[in-house]
Structures are given as C-alpha cells and as structure tokens.
Amino acid sequence: MVLRIIKPEIYYTGVIDWDRRLFDEIIPLPEGTSYNSYLIKASKKNALIDTADPNKKEEFLDNLKKVDIKIDYIISNHAEQDHSGLIGEVLDIYEDAKVITSPKCKELLKELFLIEDDKFITVEDGETLSLGDKTLKFIYTPWVHWPETMVTYLEEEKILFSCDFFGSHIATSQLFVKNEEHVYNAAKRYYAEIMMPFRLFIRKNMEKINELDIDIVAPSHGPLYPKPELIFEAYNAWISDNTKNEVIIPYISMHGSTKKMVDYLVSILIENGITVKPFNLTVSDIGELAMSLVDASTLVIATPTILTGPHPSVVYATYLVNALRPKLKFISIIGSYGWGGRTVEILKGILTNLKPEIIDPVIIKGFPKENDFKSIDNLADEIFKKHKEIGLID
C-alpha cells in the first residue's frame, strides 16, 4: 500500500482487510474492515499508535518501513488482538521502544502476548507525554468496549486517536470520510454490534471527549472524520434514552402460521403510522437486526413452538438482543403451537438484561383464525397506545 499522510509528519500505517467477512466468529463484515495504525514523527521522539491484526503482519511491517524512522514509543489504546497483536513484532525490530498504556491494558497485554514487564511504561488518566514539539494526552475511556480502553489526543494537531470508539467496519481506499451517509450507516452498525451494551459507560466517556478541541477523529477501524461533529452527533443520539416510532419483529415460521401472524401485524402497524422492520431469521443479516435495535421502541418476537419451546434460531436472536441491551421500551411475543409448550416463559427467561414493559403475548394454536386476528388487532392497538403515551405519535 502507498504511504498515506494525514498531516505533515503524521502517517497512516494501518492495513485494509478487503476480504474479511467475519469478526470474532460472529459479527458479519459485509464491507470488510481496516486495522488503523498511526505513526507520529516529532522533534525528539516518535510514537506509533496501535498496530494491526496479526494476519496482516507483513503489510503492516512494510508500512512502517516506508516511513523509515525509529520508533521510541508504542501507544496501546486497547489490548484486543486486532490492535495490539503485532506489538511483539514491533518490539523485535525497535528493541529500545517502550509500550505506553494504562495499567489495566498492560496486564492484559502481558497475558495475551507474553510481553515482558520491563517493556512497559504505564500512564494515568489525563497524563501527557512530550515527544518534543508534539504532545500526547492519554484519556481513559473504560468499557468502550473493554475495561482497559483509552484514547490518545495529539494536542498540537487536535487529532483524537480513538481506537474502537467511533469506528466503522469499512474497507475503503478513502483515508477520510467522503460519503457521510455511507459511513454513518456503517458506524451505526458498528455501534450496535460492539458498543450498544455499554451505552451508559459511553455516555460518561463522551463527556470527557466533549472537553477536547478536536479537528480530526482517527479511529482504529474505517475512515477518519475530518468533520467530527458527524460522528459526535450520531453517538449523542444513539446513547440517549430517546427511541423512535419503530417496531422490530425478528421471526421464524416453519409452516406458515407464524408468518401469517407477522404479516397481519405488520400491515396493521403500518396502517397506524408505525415504522415496522420484520426480520426473517432464516435469511436475515444479524448485524442489520442489531442496527435496527439502536432506535426502536418496541420488539415483537415471533416464533413457532418446537419441542415445547421457541425455535432455536429465535432463541439465538433473543439471546443476542439481551446481550446487546438496546433501549427498548416495550416487548411482546407472538407465535403458534401444536399441542402446548413454554415458549413465552423461556423467552422471558432469556431477556434478563432488559427491563421494558411486557405487552401481553399472542400465542395461538395452529393456523390463525378469526379470534386470533382479533388478538393481534388488540396487540397492535396496545403498541399504538404505548407509543402515543411516550410522545412518539401525535
């Protein structure tokens, strides 16, 4: 890859992974990703900020060679392997370099990569490091999305190196954000999959970020933000308690009964002016489902009963919803059964992290009949009423 310059003496040394389609063996990457790394040349010392995923070792080390300067410090904002996995290789080349990180991150790096204790210098929250004519400030941002995470602020150039904070999984040749709508959607998906469970922690960390004068946000995945207000305004909306007039319906239907119920409910909700997003779990991208939960007010889980409980794909989706902790206000369950079961009880038992109001489920026997459709009418009316009560409908 060609050497890319962000500003004079500030280099992009990351790697674009055009082909990766799965992260952590669970998160789909329809557009690939990048492992962003940055090298800062200063009058007295030079600092590398984060490294890259180990599977891109050769490309990453080639990028460092292109800059061809001595590395004195390796800043590790986050211990996860896609950012810190090549610290050992950098230390092998630049033997006198020291790893600058938080005490918590140091302990994780020692455990994950067997880096020797004397290679570290730990910094406290708000501490600064002079490189000569440039100054780095380290700001703890715990739980975005691991407990040890921090960001690094280059004071003279007003650049925030935010690691996973504000990232997006996009493989692109564009160093800076060009298509704002495209990057906004990718960042929202990234937030949903990675950051949403830590919404309240992020809210506190945003207060720290808001104190800084920032010209550029340089995350560890995706393009850089030359207009930081784009991603700051987005995050402030996502981490707020506000929801939209939206209903999300993840569903499975084995023989058509549940699908008939879903289709009927979708039609009524649309007639009532409510935005509806059904997800057939046999064909849906689970990342799209996660992204839809960022703003939704209501979740309706739809499932047939199989072996006395919900369909396994619905169990999986419900488990993810519980893990992602969206700010849902209301939840209900619909579905059909043949001879009995514990579907509602099992699904409620999975959703232990969430505290929304439960709207009476509609569980029917066999194919939906006239009275069953009346029950779905009542459910739709109740959702409309709830949305109106919290000010989502005039």
Molecular structure report:
This protein is of the alpha/beta class and 394 residues long. Helix content is 34%, strand content 25%. The protein has a seven-stranded mixed β-sheet with strand order 1-2-7-8-9-10-11. Strands 17, 18, 19, 20, 21, 22 and 23 form a seven-stranded mixed β-sheet that branches. A five-stranded mixed β-sheet has the order 12-13-14-15-16, with no helix packed on it. The longest helix is centred in the last third of the chain and has 20 residues, at 370-389. The mean pLDDT is 97.
Summarize the biggest pleated sheet: 7 strands, mixed
Give me the secondary-structure category: alpha/beta
Rg, Cα atoms, Å: 24 Å
Distance between the termini: 54 Å
Strand content: 25-35%
Given the structure, what is the number of helices?
A: 12
Going across the biggest sheet, name each strand in turn.
Answer: 1-2-7-8-9-10-11
Average of the residue pLDDT scores: 97
Poorly predicted regions are none
What gross morphology would you assign?
elongated
User: How much helix is in the residues?
Assistant: 25-40%
**Number of strand elements:** 23
Care to give the gist of this entry?
The protein has 394 residues and is of the alpha/beta class. The protein contains twelve helices and 23 strands. The longest helix is centred in the C-terminal third of the chain and has 20 residues, at 370-389.
